[in-house]
Here is the input.
Amino acid sequence: NRKNGKGALNFRNIFNDPENDLYECSAPSGPLGIVVDTTPLGPRVRSLNPLSPLFGKTSPGDVVVGVDEVDTVGMQAGDFWQVVSRKANQQERILTILRI
Here is the structure.
C-alpha cells in the first residue's frame, strides 16, 4: 500500500476525487445506533438500528471517512468508537460518509 501519492487512501484524496459520492450528516449527542466493520477504507456501516438518528441518512455499506475534524479513513472500528465516544456529549457531530 502506498501511503503517499496519487493513489493513497486518505481523506484529502477521497474528498477531492470527483468519482466519489461524499455526503455529511449530523448526529445529535448520545448513541449513533449503528454497527460498523473495519475495512481498508475505514469504518463501514454494517447495520443501523431503526431508532438510530442516522436511520434514513446513511445505508449499510457506506463508509464513515470523518467525524467532525477527525479523519477516519483506514481507521479500525475500535478506534472509530473511541473518537465517537469522546464526542458523545457534543450537541451535534458531523459525519462525513462515502456512499458505496
User: Anything to note?
Assistant: The chain has a mean pLDDT of 90. Strands lie at 21-28, 34-37, 44-48, 63-67, 70-71, 92-99. The radius of gyration is 13 Å.
